[in-house]
Design a protein that fits this description.
Helix content is 35%, strand content 35%. The longest helix has 30 residues. The chain has a domain of 75 residues. The relative contact order is 0.17. A 3-stranded antiparallel beta sheet has the order 1-2-3, with no helix packed on it. Strand 2 and strand 3 form a beta hairpin. By secondary structure, the protein is an alpha+beta fold. The structure holds zinc ion. Zinc ion binds next to loops.
Length: 113
Amino acid sequence: MDLIVPPLLILATFGIIFAVGVGLIYIVLLIYDREARKCPKCHRRGAGSVTHTDEIHSRTFIDQAMMSSMARTDKKWVKPLRITETIYEDQFECKYCHHTWSKTVTERQHNPS
Ligand SMILES: [Zn+2]
């Protein structure tokens, strides 16, 4: 019996696995997004849309926790990791009851120093 699988079949199998994986991630993100945009007044999911975003605060600091863990493990000294933390406030408006609310989002960006 010949057990050699054509390379195209292997590619197709991986392609399907990849497509299913991406699809699942997309569905999870979609559910998460709808949950995140749930109206606090009428409790409908995915009701809020961002009307505008304000930058509240931005700061840059050195990751101290990482530096102390490096000191404990006595590893080779590496350059300290600089982190820029920006806090945004998103203004939402419900498309059903027009209730408005805000949510703060913290974004962290690692900068090579
Ligand atoms: Zn609402």
